[in-house]
Specification:
It contains three helices and two strands. By secondary structure, the protein is of the alpha+beta class. The radius of gyration is 32 Å and the shape is elongated.
Length: 137
């Protein structure tokens, strides 16, 4: 019976003393900023490429029509339009990435500080828990 109580107490103490870690808000905003900036760059580059390719296709079709009477919407116009929209879509991502990079975060934590204290006719450093508060300006 004592063995069962001992096993129960050991398993319960493992669950009691284990702590869950919370992610650091600074690293969260840094990762979010990098993901948004990367997505915005992909949209900007892809949109610019589509705009150039669509314009080249349109110019190629216009050079083939010597009379210039037939103006039809071909794939070049559509590709260039989608590319322009993709480039415009990257602007909000760049602005939100900039805002996330400038977020101010207040961090509070406990840290052991070494404090000079008197000991039996001498001085020595002893660790004392201290509350640290970091405010990024």
């Amino acid at each position: 019976m004592k063995l069962i109580y001992l096993i129960l107490m050991l398993t319960m103490s493992v669950q009691i003393y284990s702590q869950q870690t919370t992610p650091n808000p600074n690293t969260f905003f840094l990762q979010k900023t990098e993901k948004q900036r990367k997505t915005a760059l992909i949209l900007l580059g892809g949109g610019a490429g589509m705009l150039v390719i669509g314009s080249a296709m349109t110019l190629n079709n216009l050079q083939r029509d010597p009379i210039g009477e037939a103006i039809t919407i071909n794939g070049g116009y559509i590709i260039a339009g989608i590319g322009g929209l993709a480039m415009l879509g990257s602007i909000p991502l760049f602005s939100s990435a900039y805002k996330n990079s400038k977020r101010k975060v207040i961090l509070a934590s406990l840290k052991n500080e070494m404090i000079l204290q008197a000991h039996d006719r001498s001085f020595g450093y002893q660790p004392l828990p201290a509350l640290t508060l970091k405010i990024s300006l």
